[in-house]
Amino acid sequence: MQEDFLLVDGYNIIHAWDELRELMEDVSLESARVKLIDTLSNYKGVQKATIIVVFDAYLVKGNPGSVSKYHNIYVVYTKEAETADHYIERVVTSMPKHYRVRVATTDGMEQIIISGQGAVRMSAKELHNQVHQAETELRRQYIENRPPKNNMLADNLDEEALNWLENLRRQK
Q: Taking 80 as the threshold, does the pLDDT of residue 12 lie above it?
């Protein structure tokens, strides 16, 4: 079975998606970052790929970098003097060639470099469309399969259990 990976240039996507850019401008960068991470975590629910979102932390003095698991995805903060682009390039280069690797970024130079390494480039718009298609499909499935509003116990029991309850009720 082929392993799939989706690497996401976090700040690049925040600046590319209108709703995240507005959240960053109106509230905070942290809010936009959390919203992106939550969105990708939800998206992972319908994706087989391992999702890794990478954020630049190269200007943070003494930062050793970090990799953590957030629900079902990985969140990376690069170390001091390392950009998200450099981290993504290093990961793509180190992956076995039989892995399917996609990289979501709008950085043209990054797209050329990762394509040369065998990864598939994905624009921020493509990722946005796929994420929202998945959300729409999940919402549709939920609405179709949700129980009726008056979810009665009797609606979910078999004939034998219903008869037993009816007999019990009549024994007062």
A: yes
